[in-house]
Amino acid sequence: MPLNLTYVKASEVKAEELANIRVEAMRPSLLAVGRFDPDRAKRRFLDTFNASDTTIIQQGTLTIGFFVLRRRPNDLYLDHLYVLHDYQGLGVGGNVIRLVKDEARSAKKPIRLIALKGSPANQFYLRLGFCLIQEDEFDNHYIWDPC
User: Fold this and answer.
1) What number is the average pLDDT over the span 93-113?
2) Where residue 107 sits, what CATH number does that domain have?
């Protein structure tokens, strides 16, 4: 399926829709580790939602995912990247990572992110050049440095 993706800045009115995408995208990984709670997953996203950091991924008029990139003084923090299941494996996430890496190169800052242990996202980030720098009980912490 050819993808004609567009990226648009989020608005406050989209927060609930994006929270629902997060819940659905995380469901398999959270079920696998016995931690799926849809209300908690929504709340964790909505409690920190900032439209100015959030970009919606669209194919035509359909929202197929989103990412949250927090621009901090010493790094870029990829706080969220979720793509609907029907669009996973088609290069959507890779396109987002290329955009974020381009920004990191321009800013001369590393990208940091966290992925749930046991999630397929870990292999995705490793495949795209991120390095595992720390593990805790539930998460793996990664970095990609353009320098």
Assistant:
1) 97
2) 3.40.630.30
